[in-house]
Amino acid sequence: MNDAITSQLVNDGRLQVVERQQIARVMKEQALSMSGAVSDDSQVKVAQLVGARYLATGSVQPSGRSLSLTLQAMDSSTAQVVFADSVTLGTLSQLQAGAKQLASRMADKLAGGKGASGSTEIVGDFDNAQVKDSARGLARSLAMRFPKLSGKVVESLPNGSLTCNFSGAQPFAGQFFEIDGKDEVTGQMTRKGFFLMNGTAGGGCSGRSKNDPGAAITRGDQLTAVPLKINVESLEPGPGTQPELAKLLADEIRAALDTVPNFRVANDPQLTAIGRVSGPRGRRNVELQLVDKSGNIVQKLDVPATF
Length: 307
Known about the structure:
Radius of gyration: 29 Å
Number of strands: 15
Oligomer: single chain
Strand order of the largest sheet: 4-5-8-7-6-9
Mean pLDDT: 85
Distance between the termini: 25 Å
Number of helices: 6
Largest sheet: 6 strands, antiparallel, barrel
Strand content: 35-45%
Order of helices and strands: HHHEEEHHEEEEEEEEHEEEE
């Protein structure tokens, strides 16, 4: 862990690292023990003697079947802890990546700005590739629940009011559709405008339409759903799940949805996915709810995950 942190900080370049040999020499001169417990005052004194602004200490501890890495930094001029963080690892093979991640976070806190080679690998009690695969599966499941609907115009009034029918399909309030129909002059199919559905009743639906210049919307014109604007909020970490995993899964779901034709990830979404991931490794569960702009739950998803 020491070697990985030192390597990361040196390669990052934002902080200068005092050689451990120099610290050892000073501690020997000051008759301080490196093997036993050293008080905070002694550590601060050592840091000052070697000209270090900060003193970083850490530990590797077992945490159930996992490992817990902790890292903190103390300001030698005030003896105050100015950085403290930890990460849980699923396997010993992740120790180097976890230590580098902690070192990168510490550099961000103490030096600010972006480093040249900060560690971006997410580590913890999960498999990154499996998280990505699960996110893709969730995106496909959502796409199946929101197929590209098509319907017909039943009646269109001059004031923009429109009634429609989707032959058993169930659009939701706030969904947008493109209106297509035959051009009265050429007889070719052309776009006539857009329709925003406001609600459903008695097997039909109603909403507001906006026609393109020179186009007249008439009975029988086709309604085709445009890609849904969607976003994913940060998922909540439930029992047995790390915050890093919840954030990673939300990011991966967002990226996966952006590749599905039914959706378009946007900051002003028609639908927002919220939920949580919980459970220990290999027996996790993902709960998602899709809510519209009014806060109504449009769809729910509850699936097991193996990551």
